[in-house]
Amino acid sequence: MTRQQPPYPRFGECISALAGAIDANKTGSDVGRLAREGDFDWERLDTVIADLLVDSSATVVGDPAHQIFARWVSSVLSAYTRLVLGVSLDTLGRNDALPVLVQHFFAPAGGELLQQVSAEIPGPDLQRLLADSQQPLQVTFEWLDCAVGGPVEKLLYPGSTGSARVEQEKVRKWRTGTDIPSAQSVKLFYRRLIECWKPIPACPVWLMIASALSRLERQSATPLRSLMLPYAQGSTPPGRPVEELLSELVVRVGQTWPELAEPGRQLWHDLRRTSAKQPGDQERTWQQIEALERLATTSDPEGRTSYHYSWMKGRWHVLSGQYQEALPHYKMAFEQACYRAGHQVKDIISEASCLSAFLPKERVFLKQLKHAGITLGLYRKPEAGSVLEDWELDQLALQLPLEFPACGRFAECQQDLADEPIQGWLFIDRDAISKLKPDLKTPSRVRAVHSADGQVRRWPQLRLFASFGLVEQVEDLLDAGASVDDLDSSNASALLCALQHAEQTGRREVLDLLLDKPHQRATINAVTRRKQLTPLMCAIDLGLPDVVETLVMQGADVEQRALTDSQSPLYYLVSRLSGRVNPTRMLVTLTARMMQEPDLVLQDTLRRFGVGVAGAFGSNSAALRSHQELAIAVAKALVDQHVSRQSVSKLMRIAATILDAGANPNASHKYPVPGRTPLMLAAESDLPELFDLMIQRGGDPLRPDAHGQDSWQIARAFQSRRVLNYLSRSSC
Question: What gap in Å lies between CA 413 and CA 568, rounded to an integer?
């Protein structure tokens, strides 16, 4: 990162400040590195939050307060992420931004935490606890004195000499604020209280809060407690949002640099990625960038606006077709922009990621960008494995010519991405594949497949011929002893490819050949790396009960989570049946999702399925929203296709098969509603026959989801009359 502190405190700095306030042990936690360097590893950030803040607080205050604190930390970090990505602080330094952030973001957040704790764990009067004229620890000890019927230190340490006198004096120093008890001291003090009197669970909670308030106030030039008070009491003082105040401050400070503002705006206009350029613009624009950068060394000696010039240079090189030369400038722009550039950080990460993926040997920087993107909420957190998967290189490289189309390049640009083979797009001629002769001497041979754009993929030949439904070749290979358990580099088997071919064409000859062969359980349950497909999920899409029955007999795991939103087979089956029974509702839901800003799960799905118009992050829904008629037509076509291919009776048979094999109707899912189960989805979708089938297999209609809603309440909310009638009859 840059030597100057960015105007927004980094996440690591915020965590370090909180850890210091609660006296958490920072040794070996990486919080110092996160505070200095920023988001070098999203997993380390999550681990530090969990270990240093949440879990360490639990050892002092117990589970109830620990749960409140964990929810609060998560909520504040989400709100802070939105702020950091929302408001650019181009002209501000840390000393300019911090007073506004403390008064209008951090102090309100602290007050809201106290309100939540007080509502669930009664303690000292918040008006007194947060009064400038009072010591927080004194107020807390007076509350504790009332609880025990006298000075608590005399109860715990009776006597006037020796160790009793020493301990009493220690508590008196805490009361006056001369000393602040450590987290360990609070634990020992409470242990003594339990030994000498009785447990007061609120005691360690409020002693820790009072200690934290005292530490924070010692470090702050701002009267933090008085700023927290109205929020702790549940009111919001009149005033404008912090976003508006920061934006106004940026404008006010920026007015002192008029010599930079207008030339900068004009340069960004000239460097637009999609606008046509005239001959001579290339040289003229570069000269203007350098001139503005020289001017900034005088007007902006701290380099607050420097990321603009680095970014301009990087974009200039890309518009000139000089991709390798552009990368160092993007690296500099990324470092300079983090925790400063607001929404522009997203644009820098997007452009830099696409450029890095397009260039060879740039995975290190691309990983750095991905870590920052995950931390800032631009990418979904990986479930497991590497932060950067191989398929993402293709997905991001494909975005570069979309981010920088040929129409926006300088006229002098000689190299055009439109003329280059693009990784990830496979144009394979089916006729050419059908003319290939299988190698029967080496039946498990891996074949090189050449696409029309010059790419090469290497697939086991059985998987290759199965993908195209070539019955004769598949039959010959099986007779020659080809292994059905060979997987390609994406973890796809010949069986999965045959299932996909059958679903797309309605022809199942190759599928039947493969189903007749025994497969290893690992093959039957293999999950593809990019789209997270399994044979069982593809078989549910195919909608043929005998295929599902065969897979289950061969060891298909009916609880194996798959697809990009991690569904169980039963949950997915319910959604398929719901769309078949109520296609109008499916159409409304699908159309609405197309018109909305995609959440992180849907963004990840769009990326994995290579939807180019969705952008580098999968977050761009502007194309669909600007062509609503087309979006509705696409949604209707998908629904019509689903209805024509699926049968209610066959889907019910599949449900019975996987339930008999042990599928859990009470299995909790994280998405789209945390805690929802297949039984709840059947209640929502008003599917009484399937609901009854799951009840017979152990479905619990009283089990709540994460929001406390059970199947009864869900059925009422969605006006599922048939399921409500079933529940009413069953409860009689």
Answer: 51
